[in-house]
Design a protein that fits this description.
This protein has helices spanning about 30-35, 50-65, 90-95, 115-125, 145-150, 195-220, 235-245, 270-280, 320-325, 330-340, 355-360, 365-370, 485-490; strands at about 10-20, 25, 40-45, 75-80, 105-110, 130-135, 150-160, 170-175, 185, 195, 230-235, 290-295, 300-305, 330, 370-375, 380, 400, 405-415, 425-435, 440, 455-465, 470-480. The protein is α+β, with helices and mostly antiparallel strands and about 500 residues long. It folds into two domains: about 10-340, Peroxisomal Thiolase, Chain A, domain 1; about 365-490, OB fold (Dihydrolipoamide Acetyltransferase, E2P) (Beta Barrel). Strands 5-4-6-7-1-8-13-12-11 form a nine-stranded mixed β-sheet, sandwiched between helices. A five-stranded antiparallel β-sheet has the order 20-19-18-21-22. It comes from Yinghuangia soli. GO terms for molecular function: acyltransferase activity, transferring groups other than amino-acyl groups. This is OB-fold domain-containing protein.
Amino acid sequence: MTTPSNGGAVRGILGYGAYLPYRRLDRKGIAPVAGTGGGRGTRTVASFDEDTTTLGVEAARNALRATPGAAPRALLFATVAPAYADRTNATAIHAALRLDGGVPAIDATGSVRSAAGLLRLALEGGSSALVVGSDIRGGLPGSGDESAGGDGASALLVGSDTDGPVLAEYLGGASATAEFVDRWRTPGDTRSKLWEEKFGENQYLAAGRQAWTDALKSTGLTADQVDHAVVTGLHARAVAGLGRKLGVREGVLADDLAATVGTTGAAHAGVLLASVLDALAGSEAAAGKVVAVVVLSDGAEVFLFRTTEALGSYTPSRTVAEQAAGGAPIAYGKFLAWRGTLQVEPPRRPEPARTSSTAAVRSTDWKFGFVGTQDRSSGAVHLPPARVSMRGGTVDDMEPIPMAESVGTVKTFTIDRMAYSPSPPVVFAVVDFDGGGRLPIELTDMDADQVKIGDRVELTFRRIGTADGIHNYFWKARPVRTASSESAQEA
């Protein structure tokens, strides 16, 4: 059982963001190829150039974009599918967000509960922290995990009212830890194995009821005082069963997004909480709502929040509903190729060489933060950074200019069907950025036949390639999409 101990300060959620990849797999397309599996609805699919690190960067950018002036004093990153072992994955996120070098970046990997554990530590800690959960879910072709899973990330900025306006005050919660093996996967294996379903359901229901009862008792609340409840976990029957046993009013249980997104593992509790807060944000009736978050993983974690008036004036960067409603389809065969399950013929060109670690260190601000230089005398923006100005030729009279949030226009482009890529063809475009700066840059999250001169694009952090186990991260450009533009595209 846990209650917040913060010396009287109001502590809770200061900001939040979620990220859902652009591609969608229609579950009906699985069975005709795999011979089994599938189902109704769609699931989110990370692109060939995305991994849990890049997904986490995008969710964190959405959270910080909606919370101007936020300065987290720790970055906590949780994932079940880390891009690296033996080194910290959160450091790449740290660099992409351009956080101060004194801000620690910590990983917690290996289980869905890792994200809930980091959130609890942050909520009960003393300083502000950005808690990022990210996951790419899969399984064998035609499996239930492949169909029910989803890819995505969430970011919760946690702190006290001394750090900024609290959107949702943390009231308290409870943990129930239990050791039982109902799902397991050895390191390096792509397939999770499951014990008999009823066994896991019984264990989770017992842990969930205990944590729920303890959380209500520790906060002095009753079940009928809860206005919104999020229940998530990888055991679908246990999640549904516990939801029916919470004793909350009808209509309180939030949509689990299974039909449109899937279950995004370590990220899902944050994604669902963001969805609930999105629905309340900007409303005069936003304050005073009790929100419960329940995570079933190796036991249970329960968090209870009460929304504040600050949520009524909060504007999310990109709501979960907007992202879930957008996206474009991907064929099941390409999905399998992107996951490495189906090996297809690559372009007959040399694969990329291993990225130089020493060169990357020398250009960290540019490579990870997309920081160019601007001539102090002429105002010319240089991408990549330069020492000599293109206007006037002045030398070493530059200042850094962060460009990751810039929007630009495609001036010209080429479709390269010969260059090596895990998903050819490669589309390169020359982009003129608003306010100055021009750069040839790869486009992503679009089909080659869709690009046009004059397209508006924004930057996204991606994986350029991997060689000798070293991931080469940099920025690409994707189309600026609005709800109206996506509707027109679908029509």
